[in-house]
Amino acid sequence: MLPEYRSRRSCLAVPGSSPRFLDKARGLPADEVFLDLEDAVAPAAKDAARGNVVAALNGGGWGGKLMAVRVNDATTRWAYRDVAEVVTAAGRGLDVIVLPKVTGPGHVTWLDLLLGQIEQGTGDEAGRIGIEAQIEDARGLAGVDEIAAASPRLRALVFGPADFMASIGMRSQRVGAQPAGYVGSDAYHYPLLRILVAARAHGLAAIDGPYPAIGDLGGLAEAAASTAALGYDGKWVLHPTQIDVVNRAFSPSQDDYERAELVLDAYRYYTTEHHRGAVMLGDEMIDEASRKLALVTAAQGRAAGLRRTQRFEPAPDGSAGA
Ligand code: GLV
Ligand code: MG
Hints:
Layout: E1 10-15, H1 19-25, E2 32-36, H2 46-59, E3 66-70, H3 79-90, E4 96-99, H4 105-122, E5 130-135, H5 138-142, H6 144-148, E6 154-159, H7 161-168, H8 189-201, E7 205-208, H9 217-230, E8 234-237, H10 240-250, H11 254-273, E9 279-281, E10 284-286, H12 288-303
Parallel strand pairs: 1-2, 1-8, 2-3, 3-4, 4-5, 5-6, 6-7, 7-8
Antiparallel strand pairs: 9-10
Helix pairs in contact: 2-3, 3-4, 9-10, 11-12
Bound molecules: glyoxylic acid and magnesium ion.
């Protein structure tokens, strides 16, 4: 997982119909930016938006961000042209396609094949462009395991709360917030955990969807902290003011990051130098499972720009010192 891990703490939505917003997004500190051709763009503006998105990708200046385009869903008349025009003209500036409203594995297979055809035509590296699949209705959630297994291009599953709420009939207009009257603790727990398990079972990232109440940064912080604690990699943001809140929520703490780096060093040292699979690090027993957890936290911390202040020192008596 480590060499391929790309930080997706904040994934910023930018409407493809607005050259001004596309330009402004370059300088913002989001880990991923997705240029939207779907629900943020009116039907009459879809054709022009493709041109804006191609120009924005080819214009460069994105500073190492993970670059994505959200195309229209596979059942629409726009989808094949979104993919063909953007990837043919600007595929080299693109890391992933966000595919919305995925209701079964066939949608992902369609996109995988189409990308392969375009790559043959352009001579670009086969299979480099990834796919993030949005799970945002009852059918998509029911088929999430097959969807997660549908293509080696898949990088992430993304929860789409607004469309999902509409699909299941949740009685609330406040997307991402708890519906009034619900007596359970978290109305989103089931889809969030279901998507997370399917993602992890196939080695994919899991991303939570938007919190559209832009003025409610407290509510956003609470929602982001909750999905971060559950295990999600990041969350969508719709406005520049949401980015820092979400980046903070999905960054490991300095202590957790330091600890993860120490676990990796200690485990590497004792398994190779002493051929031991379980050792004490301070007062905690660590083993292969600890290493796996530590790999993720260390990678997230490095991606978030955290720096180590402690070095691993093996204890002279052969036990692992911290
Ligand atoms: C995002 O696409 C959502 O439907 O919430
Ligand atoms: Mg949606």
